[in-house]
Amino acid sequence: MHVHILGICGTFMGSLALLARALGHTVSGSDEHVYPPMSTQLREQGIDLIEGYEHDRLTPEPDLVIVGNAMSRGKPVVERLLNSHINYVSGPQWLAQEVLSKRWVLAVAGTHGKTTTSSMLAWVLRYANLNPGYLIGGIPKNFSVSAELGDAPFFVVEADEYDSAFFDKRSKFVHYRPRTAILNNLEFDHADIFPNLEAIKTQFHHLVRTVPENGLIVRPEADGHLRSVLEQGCWTPVETFTIAAGAAGAGEGGWSAHLTEPDGSKFDVLHCGKKVADVAWDLTGLHSVHNGLACMLAARHAGVPMSVAAAALSEFQSVKRRMEVIYSDDKGITVYDDFAHHPTAIQMTLEGLRARVQRLGRDGRIMAIIEPRSNTMRQGVHQDELLKSVQEADRTVWFKSPDIDWDIEAILHQPQQSSEVVDSLASIVRRTAEWVRPNDHVVIMSNGGFGGVHKKIVVALASSARTL
C-alpha cells in the first residue's frame, strides 16, 4: 500500500512514517517547514519528501493519506483530498488501529517532559530486554530513530493533548487506550485550540476514562490540576510520587525521590521511607528527577525491577534538542539546543543548568536566547510569566518575529535584568559573540528551526574563540 503523509516533518508524523514503512508500506510525504532533526532522519530512512501543499502532491494517487493536525481547510492539497475518493485518516487513529491494537500501551502525557520521559521509558524497557515498540516526538539518543515497531506486547507512546486533525478535534491521546499512563504535569498551553485550563482538564479526563481497572496511572502528588482531573472519576489504581531535597527524614509513605546531589545528578528512590534504588546519571534539574521517577514507576508496572530501571537510567543519553550540547571548546564555552517553549519549561531548564554550573564550581555565566514561537507564546498568553522564567540567566535575548501578537518590547526589554529584544538573527549572533567569555553557557530555546541561528552562533563562537 502507498501511504502519503501530510505534514510529515512534524515530530509525530515523521515517527508515523517510520512505523508505516516498517509495516511494509511505500511511504511518501509532504511538508512546507522542513528542518532537522526529523527531515534528516526521514531522508536517511529513504522516505520521499515533497516540498509544499499544492494539488499535485497527491499525484499519483496514494492508497491512503494520513493527515497531520497542521493541515486545515483551504490548503490546495486538502481540498484535492476531500474532492477525491482517496481514503484518509488522522495520525492518532491510524496509529491506534494499525499499531497499538492488542499491545500493552504505556502512554506518557503532560504539559512538559513527554518526549524525554517517553524516551526514558522506552530505554528502560529496552535495557530490561523487553524490546518495546515506541513512538516519540523527538529523536532519543539511545536509539537510532524516533519510532520502532518492537516486539509485542509493550509499546511506549508520547501521548500529546493537541488535537488529532482538522476533522477530529479530540486530543491525540484519546485514541491510544493505554494500560499504563503517566500523567506528568498539567498547565495551560495550546491557546490556539483550548480556551482555558478546564478544557484541557476535560481532555485529560477523557484519557483517564480509557485506562482499564487492571492498569496503572502514575502522577506527582503535588500537582493539584491532575488531582482535580482524577476527582472527576477514576477507575484505575494510582501511584503518586514526591521529590525531596535530601535523603534523611522524609518519605514515610508512597514513592519519593531524594536528591543526593543538589543539581539532581544523583538521587535515591524510596518506597514508604525505605531506599530501593539509587540513580546517578548525566541529567540535571528537579524536572529530570521528576521524569525519571515517573518512568521508573511505569516500568515497574511492566515488570521491570526498580534496581534495573535505575541502572538503565544511568546510561540514558537524553533526546536531541533537549539541552543537547552542540558546541564546546577548550575554553569551557558550551552551547545547548533546547526545545523549551513554555515559561515553566524555560525556568526548569535554566535552574537545572545553574545547579550544574554551581556543582562544577566554575565561574560561568548563562545566556538564554529565546524564540517565542509556539502559538500560545505568539498570542502572548504567558507574557507575564516570561521574565520570571529566566531569572537564572545572566543575560537573555528574546527574538521578536513579525507574527508576535503582543508588545514584546514593553514586557521583556528590561535593562535591569540584562534582558533585551532583537528582531534579527544577525543581531543575536553578534550579541552572543560579543558577550560570551570562557566558561560561559549559551542556551538556545525554540520549538522550531529558529532560522538556523544555532549554526550561525557556533560558527561565530568558533571564530572568536581563537582570539579569546
Structure write-up:
The protein is α/β, with parallel strands linked by helices and 468 residues long. Helices cover 32% and strands 23% of the residues. The chain has a ten-stranded mixed beta sheet with strand order 8-7-9-6-12-13-14-15-16-17, sandwiched between helices. A six-stranded mixed beta sheet has the order 18-19-23-20-21-22, with helices on both faces. Helix 1 (11-22) runs parallel beside helix 2, helix 5 (114-127) crosses helix 8 and helix 14 (425-435) packs parallel to helix 15 (453-465). The N and C termini lie far apart (58 Å).
Give a short overview:
By secondary structure, the protein is an alpha/beta fold.
Major sheet summary line: 10 strands, mixed
Tell me the overall shape. globular
Low-confidence stretches: 247-252
Fraction of residues in H or I helices = 25-40%
Amount of beta strand: 15-25%
For the record, give the distance between the C-alpha atoms at the N and C termini, rounded to a whole number. Answer: 58 Å
Adjacency order of strands in the biggest sheet: 8-7-9-6-12-13-14-15-16-17
Determine the number of helices (DSSP H or I, runs of at least 4 residues): 15
Mean pLDDT: 90
Radius of gyration: 22 Å
Number of strands: 23
Q: Output the structural class.
A: alpha/beta
Give the arrangement of secondary structure elements.
Blueprint: E1 2-6, H1 11-22, E2 26-31, H2 38-44, E3 48-51, E4 64-67, H3 76-83, E5 87-90, H4 91-100, E6 104-109, H5 114-127, E7 133-135, E8 147-148, E9 154-158, E10 163-165, E11 168-171, E12 180-183, H6 197-210, E13 216-220, H7 224-231, E14 238-244, E15 255-259, E16 266-271, E17 274-280, H8 286-301, H9 306-313, E18 324-328, E19 334-338, H10 343-360, E20 366-370, H11 375-378, H12 386-389, E21 395-399, H13 408-412, E22 419-422, H14 425-435, E23 441-445, H15 453-465
Parallel strand pairs: 1-2, 1-4, 2-3, 4-5, 6-9, 6-12, 7-9, 12-13, 13-14, 14-15, 19-23, 20-21, 20-23, 21-22
Antiparallel strand pairs: 7-8, 10-11, 15-16, 16-17, 18-19
Helix pairs in contact: 1-2, 5-8, 5-9, 6-7, 8-9, 14-15
